[in-house]
Amino acid sequence: MAKREVPLRWDRKMQQRLARGEAAALGELYDRFASLVHGLAHRVLDDERAADRITRDVFAHVWEHPDAYDPRQGPLRTWVATLTHRLAVQRLRATETAALARGGPGTTEELESKVRHASVAARADYIVQSMPVPLRAALELAYFQRRDYRQTAADLGVTEDEARRRLRLGLQLLSTAREATSRDTPGAPPGYGGAA
């Protein structure tokens, strides 16, 4: 319980500082979350310039509306990720809908499929970035470096049982990316858990 209180205390203090208009607080928040925001936006939009614009929009929104964050709903990181996802999906839909209206290729169903796919991918990225380091390290060794569980155990200096446990837990967390997105209503953030 104490571990959860420490980040939430920082989240509440950050919100209070932002509400007082402390520019330094916005700088700290940006330093902490800019790579997360940009990465999620890029994952949804697959466009560097559009991700840059979403990043600016997210931090502008946080600066202008710090009271929109409710610490009782979850961590500030989750709220920022949810906001990022919502703005990126809105932009993707607007861009793709405009392209369809101009006679571009595709259908509305293909657009929604693209949005769902981008949402699952963004949520999976968020889950990997947020999972405990031991789980992430095991997954990276197993899937990016093609190590089996025995090699993963040796590389991490843990037992084979522990390596299997970490891989299983990591995969279980990742499997929630698709499940959460399929449960969400159209247009809603994909189960990041925070209020948008």
From TrEMBL:
Pfam families: Sigma70_r2, Sigma70_r4_2. Keywords: Sigma factor, Transcription, Transcription regulation. Residues 127-173 form the RNA polymerase sigma factor 70 region 4 type domain. The keyword Cell membrane does not apply. It comes from the Bacteria. Residues 29-94 form the RNA polymerase sigma-70 region domain. InterPro entries: RNA_pol_sigma-70-like, RNA_pol_sigma-70_dom, RNA_pol_sigma70_r2, RNA_pol_sigma70_r4_t2, RNA_pol_sigma_r2, RNA_pol_sigma_r3/r4-like, WH-like_DNA-bd_sf. Belongs to the sigma-70 factor family. ECF subfamily. This is Sigma-70 family RNA polymerase sigma factor.
